[in-house]
Amino acid sequence: MFTLNYGDRRPLYAQITEKFRELILTGAMREGDKFPSVRELAASLAINPNTIQKAYKELENAGFLLSIPAKGSFVAPVKRVPDPAKIQELLQKLRSLARELKFAGAEREAVLAEIENIYKEENKA
Amino acid sequence: MFTLNYGDRRPLYAQITEKFRELILTGAMREGDKFPSVRELAASLAINPNTIQKAYKELENAGFLLSIPAKGSFVAPVKRVPDPAKIQELLQKLRSLARELKFAGAEREAVLAEIENIYKEENKA
DNA sequence: CATACTGTACTAAGTGTTATAGTACAGATA
DNA sequence: TATCTGTACTATAACACTTAGTACAGTATG
């Protein structure tokens, strides 16, 4: 499904959390889709099942995953209500990132184009 | 100068690194400005000097800080060469962040406006 | 019913990171 | 001379991360 980067200094469970969030945000995984089972993914990545469980628990807390004991883990129903607090938090990160881009010499138009592209994206099946 | 957030799960030295990077990126600190001394900042934040030293070493590796033994630590000269690899890395983060914003319900125009504002900013003294 | 799968919940151990405490040295400054 | 600066160590405690192993209840399939 994906690979882990052991050179990355972030913990394994955080890498796994991020990968799945990307899959959901890009539309590669949609509401109701089944996650690999804890043991199956652990075997596939050659790591401990507990680490997968920790990643899944994080995803569940973040509202991306819904666990049903004895059945499996699934992509949670999307809440269609804008979350102002979350948006403000993300905009703060955006400002910080934009300043770094400006500092690194990125063109204003290039940065704007990236945003446009994301908002043009169809959430592909 | 600033405060630490002990609720944050990131290490103290990383928080300190980030604060100074913000100060430099926003122009609040400029080339040649003096950082507080290791011991002074440690006393001010009520933490160990070693932790400050670790933060300063990170800033130095990142090119933001220049240490002169027995004199002090200063904001490093800015390199005016665009760094394509760094820009690509940041753009990748930008895309991820933009998808999260879209997912959270942020308006396209609001996101674009933030970028515009950053690029309009004069680097204030 | 039996078997194999699912998520979940523990304990125990090893490892690495983080942070503190303390000491020390050489160079600059006043 | 006294005090400041960055730097470099050692030692220790606390915590996070990861692995290993075991166990339980519920579901699906034969």
What does this molecule look like?
Two copies of one chain form a homodimer. The two termini of chain A are 16 Å apart. The longest helix of chain A has 21 residues, at 84-104. Chain A has two domains: 12-75, Arc Repressor Mutant, subunit A (Orthogonal Bundle), CATH 1.10.10.10; 84-120, no CATH class. Chain A is built from five helices and two strands. With 125 residues, chain A is mainly alpha-helical. Chain A has helices at residues 12-25, 38-45, 49-61, 84-104, 108-120; strands spanning 65-68, 72-75. Chain A has a two-stranded antiparallel sheet with strand order 1-2. Chain A binds chain B through residues 22, 25-26, 80-83, 86-87, 90-91, 93-106, 108, 110-112, 114-119, 121, and chain B through 22, 25-26, 80-83, 86-87, 90-91, 93-106, 108, 110-112, 114-119, 121. Chain B binds a DNA duplex (30 and 30 nucleotides) through residues 9, 11-13, 37-39, 47-51, 53-54, 56, 67-73.
